[in-house]
Amino acid sequence: DVSDTSGGHVVFASTLAGTNGRSLVICWGQVTSTSSSTAITYPVAYLHKPTVIACGADGGHSPAAETCTLDNITTTGCSVTSYQNNSGNSIGQINWISIGTANTAI
Prior knowledge:
This protein is mostly beta strands.
């Protein structure tokens, strides 16, 4: 199962993710971070919190975010905040990716 948009997910067969009938899931997307924490909702819920989740500031937009932080990580989403010049929160485009497992019932 593959989703191919500006955000989406791919689900690999359970044989690639190990035992117990779980599938490897990779989700990705882009959000515009506001001047405070911005919610990210994964397109597919994970069985447990994602094993890996990362964000990157997209400096190609104006105003440009330079760094970002993630918090409140759950099985269905997390929060992201972007920063500019270490001077505090800023508005900017944030790209994110998460990797984990889900039930094969997806």
